[in-house]
Amino acid sequence: MSTESIASSPRAADGAPPSPTLRVESAAVYLALLAGALGAIYGLIIGLLFPESPLTGEWSFGILAAIGASVVAAVIAAIGYWRSRHRPGQEWRRSLAPWKFTVNTISVVIVHTALAFLATYVVFLVLGLGFVGLPVVTFWATVLMAVTLGMTTYIVFLSVSRMTTQRMSSLLMAFIVLGTLSAMVTTPDKEWWMVHFSQLGSFDDLSSWIFNGTLIAGGLLVTTFAVYIANDMQTLVAAGSLSNRSSPRTVSTLFVVMGVMLACVGIFPVDVNLLLHNLSASGMAVMFLVLLIGGPRFLRGMPRTYFVCAWSFLGALVASVVLFITTYFSLTAFEIIVFALIFGWIAVFIRFLGVAGQRE
């Protein structure tokens, strides 16, 4: 494959997933209708068992809807992702080792399940703030649940059926942001930011489960993300766009370590094991530094503009360290900035990986 052919391919041109097919769109609609019917039954049962339940609160309609959305998301994500390995551009996934393919599937399912729960929970949380005290009667319980489960099914099926490196990157960003913000607004300690960022995961309640669960599932997704990156980079190496033939394995390995470290930050909250928590967070930051500093060697052949961005991220990281040491930044601000820099860089790296090989 020549450099020109890469530049002219749909994926390389804009990094977007292949256009949806009629079969995929039709399957998404039929599955959404089926899930909507099941949702109507589920909503009717809830309406009869919990008449006039509130939109938000403990065991409210919003929580029950989020649980229902997460269940259908898990089933649909598993079915859709498994089936999509036969689609054009996804055949390479069939060559993966069985354990690796299984881990990838599990991580995709977990993230879509968690995203469905968080998104539904947040929607009803906002509705609860807008319709204070509004009870959900049986009729609206049936309608709302049918719509919730139907829309969840449609969105999740299309997402897993067109999975690419960029789509997975977008999922990672959306998941981390949504999970973190949900933990912030539901935490029992409204002054958590006066301590440190990890304080969000130190409570035995829903907000901490959301925060720690987001880090664990996000770390698992990063390890899957590494497989997609390795495949894209191998294609670029074969085309001569990247000159370091060992770069796919090196970069993907660093991403795997970063994902494991991110998951361990959630597995070991500060109130459970401070040492392992801090070592995990530091390990993730070290992998980020290695990828930035080693970029000119690992990623030789990437567009010049990418390296300008990478060095800008490194400069911002160094500036943040200096401002933290001089006590201009609080620990919370420093942690949030480093967190944002890591995931911001991932998004930029994937965008440029998708256009590597094109003429500037």
UniProtKB/TrEMBL annotation:
Record-linked InterPro entries: DUF998
Transmembrane segments: 27-49, 61-82, 103-131, 137-158, 170-188, 208-230, 251-268, 274-294, 306-330, 336-354
Record key words, sorted: Membrane, Transmembrane, Transmembrane helix
Protein name: DUF998 domain-containing protein
Organism, scientific name: Microbacterium pumilum
Lineage: Bacteria, Bacillati, Actinomycetota, Actinomycetes, Micrococcales
